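Lab meeting, item 3. Inverse folding demo.
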């Protein structure tokens, strides 16, 4: 077998062994059998909440086990193809085998990181909020670029993206926007993206073609499901209605259907204008508010809570988590993990996995070496 193929095979086998240990493989298989048996119980749905929790557990465990089994099958098929191609001197088939193994290796690396997503809300959907910083049109345009970047990342990974609220910039871009990203582990992957993002480029809005620095902030909150209880005193919440802006047809522009909720004790504000009625927007706004307040609680539990709070209160110098430099050179660098790349266009098109993976591993405080030790 070719040395590079042998090396990929060894890497994949190491990842699979690590995943099996983290899953506690044999007990995990027994637990899945137990959950499958309980699903067949005709009285299961007598308690809807318990049934939904059981189904979530079953789906998550089934997915983890299937991932390992599919990678093992992919490894076996890739190695077999590589060996046959090597014996026959078929370079085209060998290239196909390498590509197949590379795909399995990349999937294994992502699965290793997903195994770190063990937080209370890591498996939940997420709200991602973008806010432009000081700087007028420049910052609004940068906020719009970030919204596009995260939307493309989400769609590339099979997540659904829904715009919940937005406020357009005066000339370009957006002042703020909130999107709902739906899919497995959405919050777990995105939570490390909260903070200030800094852009350096030649401004397309400056006739003198001078270099400008712009800031925008990202805030990520988990969608709070039935397994997480958040108590909110209605008397602490102020409700405002207003006329939605932007696209949405005649109805959305003629009625005060948009809803803004303000949680007075924490000065937390959420808004929703995506629904076609005030009732729909009110219901979604309350979900968003519960998510934001839960995120605040999570921040209090973490040692990095103060840094996150600083990033949200001052969108400017000294608080950024990542820099995107387009001039005078090409570089995106995460200031927390020192991960960097010169493929700035790829990053702006949604290629964020390297940054998210490094931040996730650092935040959890776990790496492959530490686990194997």
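The presenter then showed the designed sequence:
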């Amino acid at each position: 077998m070719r040395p590079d193929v042998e090396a990929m095979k060894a890497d994949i086998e190491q990842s699979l062994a690590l995943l099996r240990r983290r899953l506690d493989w044999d007990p995990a298989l027994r637990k899945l059998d137990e959950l499958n048996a309980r699903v067949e119980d005709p009285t299961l749905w007598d308690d809807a909440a318990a049934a939904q929790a059981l189904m979530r557990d079953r789906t998550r465990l089934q997915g983890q086990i299937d991932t390992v089994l599919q990678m093992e099958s992919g490894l076996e098929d890739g190695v077999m193809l590589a060996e046959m191609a090597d014996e026959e001197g078929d370079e085209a088939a060998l290239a196909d085998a390498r590509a197949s193994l590379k795909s399995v290796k990349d999937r294994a690396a992502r699965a290793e990181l997903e195994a770190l997503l063990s937080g209370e809300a890591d498996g939940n959907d997420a709200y991602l909020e973008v806010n432009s910083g000081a700087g007028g049109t420049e910052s609004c345009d940068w906020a719009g670029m970030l919204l596009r970047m995260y939307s493309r990342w989400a769609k590339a990974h099979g997540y659904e993206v829904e715009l919940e609220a937005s406020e357009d910039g005066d000339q370009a871009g957006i002042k703020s926007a909130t999107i709902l990203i739906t899919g497995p582990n959405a919050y777990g992957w995105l939570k490390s993206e909260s903070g200030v993002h800094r852009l350096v480029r030649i401004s397309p809005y400056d006739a003198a073609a001078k270099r400008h620095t712009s800031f925008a902030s990202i805030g990520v909150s988990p969608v709070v499901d039935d397994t997480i209880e958040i108590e909110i005193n209605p008397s602490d919440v102020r409700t405002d209605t207003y006329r939605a802006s932007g696209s949405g047809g005649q109805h959305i522009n003629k009625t005060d259907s948009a809803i803004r909720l303000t949680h007075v004790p924490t000065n937390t504000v959420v808004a929703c204008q995506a629904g076609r009625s005030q009732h729909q927007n009110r219901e979604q706004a309350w979900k968003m508010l519960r998510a934001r307040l839960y995120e605040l609680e999570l921040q209090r539990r973490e040692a990095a809570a103060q840094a996150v709070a600083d990033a949200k209160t001052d969108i400017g110098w000294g608080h950024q988590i990542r820099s995107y430099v387009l001039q005078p050179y090409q570089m995106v660098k995460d200031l927390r993990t020192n991960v960097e790349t010169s493929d700035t266009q790829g990053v702006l098109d949604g290629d964020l996995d390297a940054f998210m993976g490094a931040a996730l591993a650092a935040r959890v405080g776990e790496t492959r070496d530490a686990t194997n030790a």
